[in-house]
């Protein structure tokens, strides 16, 4: 009886356990999610929308970024090429400017400009008046002032001589066989008081077709006096100065002006003159008119000494400054071109690296 009861109770307990287990399994089966639930969860629109939006934005970014990057790269390359072209143009202009500056400097250096300066003086150094009278005879030589010459008294006869003079005999520089005799007179010096020298010559012209006396002007009478070899000095003067003439039967008024030319190496002195000729009214007896009379007046034209200087207008410092600016511009242009090329290479490498990264991401 006891065994039966125990067996019954154990059986009941097992049945209860079985029932409880089945109920727990039923409950577990009721609580466990079914395959339909997973399908519904995967098909839930709330979870589907973010995934689609992320994929769409990624596709949009992938679709739009290459075009934007390509356009920016094109613009950068275009502006880089434009800048390089501008700087090449500026470099060409700078090189042309340097060439032009050097050419102008050399041209001005080889072709100096003539500058004329008028210097006012109170008196000139007495010039030398070399006369070649030949067979003519000096009748008078006097100093007068203020452009006034008194009336002639006994023309054709020897009169007072108050001029300082000397005679020099030498052989001409162009024909050594010709012997010349020069009568050198000390010229006027007081230009303020208009000092002048009046000379009168007489010559028998029975054997002459034309009558004239040659003369020559040189810078300083004192140079002849101080010269050790007067003959050689006169030869040099005749070689360097011009010859002039005044005719018989006239009064020749010579107005002198001094011209000094300062060259690159040497300095030259030249006389310029203006002459006026007036006919002499010969009132002598006919027997005395066979002797031809010559009248000459020498005077300074004005108190201004004309100086001509050859000036080199090429300024080396200004040319050097311009060339320094040009070379600085060339250096800056070269430096900019170097940096631009480096930047272009860097941008090209970056573009290729980004393109390779995109291709790797797509694959």
TrEMBL record:
Major localization listed first in the record, in broad terms: membrane
Residue segments, region Disordered: 1-65
Naturally occurring in which organism (per UniProt): Oreochromis aureus
GO CC annotation terms, alphabetical: chloride channel complex; plasma membrane
Regions crossing the membrane: 78-99, 316-341
Family: Belongs to the proton-activated chloride channel family.
Compartmental location: Cell membrane
Protein name: Proton-activated chloride channel
UniProt topology in membrane: Multi-pass membrane protein
Recorded name of the encoding gene: pacc1
Keyword annotations: Cell membrane, Chloride, Chloride channel, Ion channel, Ion transport, Membrane, Transmembrane, Transmembrane helix, Transport
GO terms for MF: chloride channel activity
Entry annotated with the keyword Membrane: yes
Region forming the signal peptide: none
Reactions catalysed according to its record: chloride(in) = chloride(out)
Biased composition (Acidic residues): 13-30
């Amino acid at each position: 009886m006891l065994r039966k009861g125990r067996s019954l109770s154990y059986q009941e307990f097992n049945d209860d356990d079985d029932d409880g287990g089945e109920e727990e399994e039923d409950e577990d089966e009721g609580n466990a999610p079914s395959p339909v639930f997973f399908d519904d969860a995967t098909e839930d629109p709330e979870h589907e929308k973010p995934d689609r939006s992320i994929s769409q934005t990624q596709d949009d970014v992938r679709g739009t970024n290459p075009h934007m990057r390509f356009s920016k790269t094109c613009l950068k390359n275009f502006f880089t090429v434009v800048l390089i072209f501008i700087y090449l143009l500026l470099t060409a202009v700078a090189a042309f400017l340097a060439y032009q500056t050097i050419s102008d400097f050399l041209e001005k250096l080889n072709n100096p400009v003539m500058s004329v300066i008028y210097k006012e003086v109170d008196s000139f150094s007495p010039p030398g008046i070399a006369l070649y009278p030949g067979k003519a005879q000096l009748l008078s030589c006097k100093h007068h002032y203020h452009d006034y010459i008194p009336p002639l008294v006994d023309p054709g006869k020897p009169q007072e001589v108050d001029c300082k003079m000397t005679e020099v005999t030498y052989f001409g520089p162009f024909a050594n066989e010709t012997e010349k005799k020069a009568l050198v007179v000390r010229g006027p010096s007081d230009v303020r008081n208009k000092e002048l020298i009046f000379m009168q010559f007489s010559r028998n012209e029975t054997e002459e077709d034309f009558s004239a006396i040659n003369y020559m002007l040189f810078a300083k009478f004192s140079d002849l006096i101080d010269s050790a070899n007067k003959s050689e000095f006169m030869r040099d003067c005749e070689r360097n100065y011009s010859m002039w003439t005044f005719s018989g039967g006239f009064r020749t008024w010579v107005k002198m002006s001094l011209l000094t030319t300062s060259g690159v190496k040497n300095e030259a002195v030249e006389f310029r003159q203006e002459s006026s000729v007036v006919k002499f009214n010969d009132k002598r007896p006919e027997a005395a008119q066979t002797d031809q009379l010559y009248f000459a007046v020498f005077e300074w034209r004005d108190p201004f000494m004309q100086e001509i200087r050859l000036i080199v207008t090429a300024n080396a410092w200004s040319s050097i400054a311009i060339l320094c600016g040009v070379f600085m511009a060339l250096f800056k242009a070269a430096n900019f071109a170097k940096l631009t090329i480096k930047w272009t290479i860097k941008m090209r490498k970056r573009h290729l690296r980004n393109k390779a990264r995109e291709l790797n991401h797509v694959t």
